[in-house]
Amino acid sequence: KISTPGCPPCSSPYLRAPGRALAGATVKVARGPSSVGRAATTGEDGAFRLAELAAGDGYVLTATKEGFVAQTREGIRVVAGQVTRVEFVLRAAETPVGYGVIEGEVVDGEGRPLGGVLVAIVAGPSGVGRQATTGERGGFRFGELSPGRYALKATREGHGAAAQDGIVVEAGRTTPVRFVLRRAVAQ
Predict the structure, then answer these.
(1) pTM beyond 0.85
(2) DSSP per position, 15-82
(3) Separation CA 93–CA 95 (nearest Å)
């Protein structure tokens, strides 16, 4: 279940912190160094379900939503025949004084939003190695970046990669970025 902080307590047994349900967040699952390749989107009640995972330890879940700070839970254990409950509370993204933001979108060749795209900071004065995955509206956001020049790379299976460098981040400002990913051509 995913919620936001700061609202009156919810009566739902799935929430451990006060807040409102957060619909449209993406939860991805990985195990060890590789991705399991599954994701779920939260419903209106903030709930998500990732079914048919192999029993075992070491699962990592990451919850993301445009305009919110991503959150990761590590060391999740899945027990055969049981439901494993994982809860997230995502807070709205804010930019501290002295930092900037890169916010953008990824679209396909026809200009439609492209979800499930991995966008990574590959060079810059801070945040190198940070990644974000676009939601169904194709959006991504990197907050709390030191001012300077950055390079980003966007990739998605079945599509060509795209990169941009020389992206200027200024303190207190949001820098817009747009990627266009075209379908990979089978050879």
Answers:
(1) no
(2) -SSS-EE-TT-EEEEEETTEEEEEEEE--TTS-----SPPSEEEEEEEEE-TTB--EEEEEEEE-TTS
(3) 7
